[in-house]
Specification:
Oligomer: heterodimer
Number of helices of chain B: 3
Largest sheet of chain B: 8 strands, antiparallel, barrel
CATH architecture of the largest domain in chain B: Beta Barrel
Number of strands of chain B: 10
Order of helices and strands of chain B: HHEHEEEEEEEEE
Radius of gyration of chain A: 25 Å
Strand content of chain A: 35-45%
Helix content of chain B: 10-25%
Radius of gyration of chain B: 24 Å
CATH topology of the largest domain in chain B: Porin
Largest sheet of chain A: 6 strands, antiparallel
Order of helices and strands of chain A: HEEEEEEEEEE
Strand content of chain B: over 45%
Strand order of the largest sheet of chain B: 1-2-3-4-5-6-7-10
Number of strands of chain A: 10
């Protein structure tokens, strides 16, 4: 084996090996920015969950409705580059012609901490919830709102309770 | 005695392949002297990449010094600047590094030739800084369509960073002309400690190269041109 052959072989080999590099894609399983978890309770019996029929959640300032569901819990995305987010929660959304349709607006005020996650995922937001309020209107279906966990760093338990 | 016969046979082969014009090769080699010296060079891949790649500039000088028949003290010193834009972070790392260790030649040379197929081990140390240019706050919901943060926030320059690693090299150094060598090696590195930026991470370390999310393994490659300053010869 002469020098030139050794060189050529080494160049080819190393070039082939270095060609393999993993992609950096943020894995679904990585915990990133958590959503706000709301649970609905029965105002008459505050320890019991009570689901809301066809509730629609739409962010104030957003043309799209985020979700429509009959459920006793909602997971809503908060704005991470703002310290407040408002949602309009509409009860009985499916049939707006019935008199039961009712819009209530909730306002959430919080502080944001930006936390580094990884090369693939970038950063995530964590929230410290300061206030959860229901905007005044003439016909409220929400009787009261309270913060149960102010630090929003995961989605394992409810952060806000709504009684209706 | 058998060694002598084999060597002579090999010499004969060289003489045949190189032709008649090069008869002095035989005269030289028959003395059986091996050259010892300091070999210095440059990693040519880095200046070439500096020209071809917009987001990279770097330079590396390397040297080795022969201390015995098969063992060399070897080291590299370099400087790199690399900008990387990922989906969710964009940053620039710049800094210097040095690596020091030994190379073990595993190749049995023909008489008069001084090529190497070697394995090497290095200790590597970098001093660098990293600037975060922009990032996004990763959200599984795109409902609010939030933009990339390219000003303020966590953006900024993180100084006083460092990395330390152990590196294994596998490569060749082949003499192309008398005292002029070309080298190629593949490097496998393992990070052993690092000084990280606060609320961010070392995503590139000069000399170590790309740092992955889920492990501490790094890889590298070097193409070098080296010149040997012959200091003395030692009879075989």
């Amino acid at each position: 084996m002469n020098s030139k052959k050794i060189c050529l072989m080494a160049v080819v080999l190393t070039t082939l090996l270095v060609g393999c590099e993993p992609d950096d894609i943020c894995a679904v399983s990585t915990p990133t920015t958590p959503k706000l978890i709301i649970r609905f309770y029965d105002a008459a019996n505050p320890t019991e969950y009570k689901s809301v029929e066809n509730i629609a959640a739409q962010g104030v300032g957003n043309e799209l409705i985020y979700i429509v569901a009959s459920t006793d819990s909602l997971a809503l995305p908060l704005k991470s580059q703002s310290t407040s987010t408002s949602f309009v929660l509409t009860k009985n959304y499916v049939d707006p012609t019935t008199s039961d349709t009712n819009d209530d607006q909730i306002n959430l005020l919080y502080d944001v901490t930006q936390v580094y996650v990884s090369r693939a995922c970038g950063f995530k937001a964590q929230y410290e919830l300061n206030q959860a309020l229901v905007a005044t209107d003439s016909d409220l279906w929400i009787q009261s709102i309270e913060i149960s966990t102010s630090l929003i760093e995961n989605e394992t338990k409810a952060h806000v309770k709504i009684y209706h | 005695m058998s060694k002598y016969i084999i060597s002579s046979f090999l010499l004969f082969t060289i003489a045949v392949t190189w032709g008649q014009e090069n008869t002095d090769v035989i005269n030289d080699s028959i003395v059986y002297k091996e050259r010892y010296g300091l070999r210095v060079g440059v990693d040519v891949s880095k200046p070439i990449r500096s020209i071809l790649e917009e987001n990279y500039s770097g330079l590396e000088l390397l040297a080795d010094y022969r201390i015995s028949k098969r063992l060399y003290i070897a080291g590299e010193i370099g400087n790199e600047k690399k900008s990387i834009t990922e989906n969710n972070v964009a940053f620039t790392t710049k800094g210097s590094y040095f690596k020091l260790g030994v190379d073990l030649n595993t190749y049995r040379n023909w008489v008069g030739m001084e090529n190497m197929i070697y394995v090497g081990i290095r200790y590597g140390l970098s001093k660098h800084e990293q600037r975060l240019h922009s990032y996004s706050i990763y959200n599984t919901s795109q409902y609010w369509e939030e933009s990339v943060i390219s000003e303020g926030g966590e953006n900024g320059n993180f100084t006083g960073l460092s990395g330390q690693w152990i590196e294994f090299q596998f490569g060749v150094k082949a003499e192309l002309l008398r005292n002029l060598y070309m080298g190629v090696n593949l490097q496998l590195k393992r990070l052993i400690s690092e000084e990280r930026p606060e609320n961010f991470d070392n995503l590139y370390i000069p000399g170590f190269n790309k740092v992955l999310d889920d492990n501490t393994i790094g890889v590298g490659l070097s193409y070098s041109i080296m010149y040997q300053i012959p200091l003395y010869t030692r009879t075989k």
